[in-house]
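Students often ask why inverse folding is considered easier than folding. One informal answer: many sequences map to the same fold, so there is more than one right answer. In these notes we will look at a single instance of the problem. The structure comes first.
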C-alpha cells in the first residue's frame, strides 16, 4: 500500500464515516490529522554527546525526514545542565511523510511490541493524542546490532478535532489499536 492510499482512504471512507457519526453538515467540519511530532528527550546526553547524534540518525531513519536536536532553555545545576546544550531530538511530519509514517507505525511497528494489547486512549482535551514508546527497536529501520542505548520516544498526533471524542474517532478510523 502506498501513501496515497491512506490519504484516499481518509477521503473515501473516513470522512463519510465521521460525518455520519457526528452529524457534520459540510466536509470541512470533519477533523483532519494535521501533523505527527516525534520527540526523544535524552537526559543522558549531558554526559555523552554521541547519544544525540545517534538519536538524530535513528529518528531520521524512522521518519524519513531529517531530525533536529532540541536544546536546553536554561541552566539547571542539579542536572549538570547548561543553557543551549542539546538534550533531545525531534521531527515534525506533515502531508505524505506523515501518512507514510502512520501506516508503518500501525501496520508494522506496533504489532512488533511484545505482549501488545492496544494503546491507552488518553487525549489532551483538545483532540490531540500522545503515544509513548519505550524502545526504538520496534521500527524495522533500526538495526538491532548497532544499538548502544535503548531510547524511548513520544509520538504526538495533532488533529483539528474540537473534542477528544472526535479525535479518538478519527485516529481509530486511521487504524490506531486503542484498548477497548
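Output (designed amino acids):
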Amino acid at each position: 500500500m502506498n501513501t496515497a492510499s491512506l490519504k484516499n482512504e481518509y477521503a473515501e471512507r473516513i470522512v463519510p464515516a465521521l460525518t455520519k457519526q457526528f452529524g457534520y453538515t459540510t466536509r470541512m467540519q470533519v477533523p483532519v490529522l494535521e501533523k505527527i511530532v516525534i520527540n526523544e528527550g535524552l537526559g543522558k546526553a549531558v554526559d555523552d554527546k554521541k547519544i544525540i547524534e545517534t538519536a538524530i540518525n535513528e529518528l531520521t531513519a524512522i521518519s524519513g525526514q531529517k531530525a533536529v536536536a532540541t536544546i536546553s532553555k536554561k541552566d539547571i545545576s542539579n542536572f549538570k545542565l547548561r543553557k543551549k546544550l542539546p538534550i533531545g531530538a525531534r521531527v515534525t511530519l506533515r502531508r505524505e511523510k506523515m501518512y507514510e509514517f502512520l501506516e508503518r507505525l500501525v501496520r508494522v511497528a506496533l504489532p512488533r511490541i511484545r505482549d501488545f494489547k492496544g494503546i491507552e486512549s488518553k487525549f489532551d482535551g483538545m483532540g490531540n493524542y500522545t503515544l509513548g514508546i519505550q524502545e526504538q527497536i520496534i521500527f524495522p529501520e533500526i538495526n538491532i546490532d548497532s544499538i548502544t542505548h535503548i531510547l524511548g520516544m513520544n509520538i504526538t498526533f495533532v488533529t483539528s478535532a474540537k473534542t477528544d471524542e472526535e479525535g479518538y474517532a478519527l485516529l481509530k478510523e486511521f487504524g490506531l489499536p486503542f484498548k477497548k
